[in-house]
Amino acid sequence: MKTEEFDFHLPQERIAQHPLNERDRSKLLTLQRETGSIKHHTFLDIVDYLEQGDTLVLNDTKVIPARLFGRKKDTGGKVEVLLVKELDSDKNRWLAMTKPAKKLKIGTEIIFHDERLYGIVTDIKEEGLRVISFHVPGEESFHEVLERLGKMPLPPYITEKLDDSGRYQTIYSKHIGSVAAPTAGLHFTNRVFDALRKKGVNIVYITLHVGLGTFKPVEADEIKDHTMHEEFYTVSDEVAKIINDTKAKGKRVIAVGTTSCRTIESMMRDHGKIREGSGWTDIFIYPGYRFKGIDGLITNFHLPKSTLIMLVSALAGRENVLNAYQEAIDRCYRFYSFGDAMFIYP
Fold first, then answer.
1. Nearest to 59 by CA among 346, 269, 314, 298
2. Is 3.30.420.40 the CATH number for 3-63+164-345?
3. Which of 50-64, 145-159, 172-186, 325-339 is least confident?
């Protein structure tokens, strides 16, 4: 299957630059995966599509302020660093994307914010990634300094300033470790959760720390030649039991976001069921894949030729998805991270 089969034209004005004032007032497009039937709602209406005994699975990862701006110690040249994966928490070693990458050789020292933090390039990896060891003068931890000095790593298609960095976090974010938000969860509010609980819907949380794969486009002509980067996930025993029980009772498991979906499907692929544990997943889901864990998916509208649009196409069919995307464009839906939502259901 060719990557170009997942291309579509998106007018620039459809890319949401800011979140809505009220999270749950975004538009909601529902897509029935078997028939391709499309309906239009607001996100609050998601409650009408879930039933007693269904289980909603959300990703409670928290985005770190992973973007740092500094200068080379020897020349004073400007450096931008985007942290993508923690390699050693004790030594504050991180894998990072850098600008300019070619000028950052092994041994290069980078000073951030008037020497309140500095780093040393210790290795060069594939695709120009650098390994940087960070050092914090004083008694603060690296993460404490990062919270003060780092900037939220907004995707490159968001070009306008975000006044409230909390709007790039879900209201239930808990475990620090992502370099991008699980954006399908940005629509949820306490009033949505309250309505779902009153209806008898189970609400559970897994953790998957979103990593480099979010920023990496599919460049291979053939989908199967694309390599996914690993991402770390954790599932508790209680959550595993609820999901397995839901399946056993013939009720539906609804993933909120592709990250929740990939966690569930990884466990089903590796173990045949959901179980307590942590691990790394590089699962790549595209058409032809048979879903073993989820029955439905709440998601945003994704970039052309991305692994994410391939995943939703595997669930609902490529033609159905591209047709739904075109209708969303025609009806002025807002796309990408701060955009509107889509619910794919059986």
1. 298
2. no
3. 145-159
**Which positions ≥6 away from 228 have C-beta within 8 Å?**
213, 282, 283, 284, 307
A 10 A CB-CB count for 324 gives 23
The whole-angstrom separation of Cα 168 and Cα 264 is 24
- pLDDT tens column, 214-242: 656 788 999 999 988 889 999 999 999 99
| CATH number of the structural domain 67-149 | 2.40.10.240
Which residues lie closer than 8 Å to 233 by C-beta, 6 or more apart?
A: 206, 207, 208, 209, 263, 266, 278, 279, 280, 281
- pTM assigned to the model: 0.92
pLDDT, tens digit, 9 for 90 and up, residues 284-299? 999 999 999 999 999 9
Distances (CA, A) of 236 to 113, 131, 239, 244, 291: 39, 31, 5, 12, 21
Rounded to an integer, what distance in angstroms lies between the CA atom of residue 23 and that of residue 289?
32
pLDDT single digits (tens) 319-342: 999 999 999 999 999 999 999 999
Q: What is the reported pLDDT for 206?
A: 98
Domain boundaries, the chain: 3-63+164-345, 67-149
116: exposed, middle or buried (Cβ count in 10 Å: 0-12, 13-18, 19+): middle
d(CA 201, CA 193): 9
Q: What three-state secondary structure class fits 330? A: helix
- Among all chains, which residue has been given the structure tokens 């210790």? 122
Tell me the backbone φ, ψ of residue 299, rounded to 5 degrees. Answer: -150, 170
**Residue closest to 55 by CA, chosen among 252, 322, 225, 190:** 252
